[in-house]
Specification:
- The protein is an alpha+beta fold.
- The chain contains 3 helices and 3 strands.
- It has one domain.
- It has a 3-stranded mixed sheet.
- Strand 2 and strand 3 form a beta hairpin.
- The radius of gyration is 16 Å and the shape is globular.
- The mean pLDDT is about 90.
């Protein structure tokens, strides 16, 4: 439906979690804001080459910042961080999604 351009705001109402991709507009880093009554929002930003240390050497690697903002009344910080870490692992190793690791 969305790919056909037929999605309306009513189709998107009542959600509990949002994924925001500011990276398509060049956003390098931001803090997404939770839209009540949702519980959390995941912000994904632009992927750019950055200098990182790998095996003691400085190399260029594609890097993307991700941020998770959540309502602490609904989610414990530990659970939110573990979720964010799992997202990071799946982005770095997409085969984990297919193999459900």
């Amino acid at each position: 439906m969305a790919r056909d351009g037929k999605i309306t705001p009513d189709h998107m109402s009542g959600g509990t979690f949002t994924v925001s991709n500011g990276g398509i507009f060049g956003s390098m880093m931001s803090t997404p804001i939770v839209n009540p009554p949702q519980s959390a929002i995941l912000g994904m930003h632009a992927t750019t080459l950055r200098a990182v240390v790998k095996d003691g050497n400085i190399v260029a690697r594609p890097m993307m910042y991700i941020a998770c903002t959540y309502d602490h009344r609904l989610l414990d910080g530990r659970d939110a961080v573990l979720f964010l870490r799992k997202i990071k692992e799946c982005i770095e190793e997409p085969e984990r999604i297919i193999l459900q690791l």
